[in-house]
Amino acid sequence: MNLADSTVVVVGSGFGGLSTACYLADAGADVTVLEKNEQLGGRASRLEEDGFRFDMGPSWYLMPDVFERFFGHFDRTPSDYYRLERLDPHYRIFFKDGDGRGSENGDGSENGTEGVDFVDILPELEKNKELFESFEPGAGEALQRYLDQSERNYGVGMEHFVYTDRSRFRDYVSMDVARNARGLNLLGSMQDHVEQYFDDPRLQQIMQYTLVFLGGSPKNTPAIYNLMSHVDFNLGVYYPENGLGGVVDGIVELAEELGVEFRTDYEVTDITGHEGDFFVHSADERIAADLVVSDADYPHTEQELLPPESRQYDADYWESRTYAPSAFLLYLGVEGDVEPLAHHTLVLPEDWNEHFDRIFDTPSWPDDPAYYLCVPSETDDSVAPEGHSNLFALVPIAPGLPDGPAIRENFREKLLDDIEANTGVSLRDRIVFEESFSVSEFADRYNSTKGTALGLAHTLLQTGPMRPGHRSPTVDGLYFTGSYTTPGIGVPMCLISGQHTADAMVEDH
């Protein structure tokens, strides 16, 4: 079968599905994307109500080089579809052990840590080094050494282990791997790695917060992911025009230019057949295809959409996996401003080990949560009515937790109290719009196993060839893309996953 003469159905329109569709259409395939929900983008959905517009899922635009490479494959640039603004500060961190609310040292105006409630991570590396030095002597130069290692890991890791798909063990048996893996931190944990550079627990937290994007904790994420600090400090944090939803719009526009057809409100119930003779079923119709790609959650595809004889993994396999956190989210429209919150704000407890333990070891709702506050109205006036702020709060929680109305209301009150106590921002009496989203919505809206917000965590035993593959070994012509596959979790990784899936299909056909 020649791919250029094939009809392909892609199930799901997350970034992995959108990326795969673009590459396949560019290769000449006739591609149709089926999306369960009313809008495209998968978890990158948008909530629009009463003049407020929220990115419901991912909200950080990181690794701009990945987006440039993706659009560049089609002789285009991101700027053909959306504008970017580099954030300054990249993000703000409130430490709960502070007692001097309102002071800052991110801009150099007050560079001691005594009584400081928050710090800003800035585009200027020298200022960030000054900040680190103010926490402990020698930490400024330690940051430089850490970032030098991070940049090396990023360069080697991206080129030889991310853009080069090594999703099978045999892909690692080569001199190229041996040569390029030399010097990389592959096996230790992020906690062990960061402790080699910094003693102050707050500095360790700054270097590890990006693990939330990978769905892991400092204790279970391999040290190779220190490359995320190069992303954070050196490549920068950006805001795309119209948020991450604007990026979805841009990729959809590109896909349509390439000839991709989209159908929303199409919930797939079954996938039957094999290469050259597939049928993708909904409740009241079926679509024929030569090849099928699933960007739906991998376990859902295997356990719910495929007949038992077509599954490569059983229920026990999926039950034994370590899943990335779910989340408790509050989308809030608020009267007035919410200073001193920045566009991206983190609020971190003095010891966040207990919070991670309650995600991965003893699943339960956290007593002293670490959380993220996103205020896009600090950058974009279009996301809220005049005189109002757009804010959402995200607390990582264990997947599979019960989240009934009483539990959620109790945690909402605790979270609003925590925000006021640790940032000085009182929200409760100014909320004019509110909606929550948590474990049950992730499961219902996205068919997400245990309501995970991200998929499989990046533990050592779930990285590289130990993640599920792009090809189904049991059904010829069935492929997978998205965060469950290599290279893994996150918008940039899902874009690259789409390329790997399409490359596998080109290789096979």
From TrEMBL:
Specify the pathway: Carotenoid biosynthesis
> What keywords sit in the KW lines?
Carotenoid biosynthesis, Oxidoreductase
The organism encoding this protein is Haladaptatus paucihalophilus DX253
Please give the name of this protein: Phytoene desaturase
Q: What start-end ranges are recorded for coiled-coil regions in this protein?
A: none
Protein's UniProt keywords contain Oxidoreductase? yes
Q: Which Pfam families match?
A: Amino_oxidase
Give the Gene3D superfamilies listed for this entry.
FAD/NAD(P)-binding domain
Q: Any keyword NAD?
A: no
Q: Where is the Amine oxidase domain?
A: 16-505
Any one GO molecular function term: oxidoreductase activity
Q: What's any GO biological process attached to this entry? A: carotenoid biosynthetic process
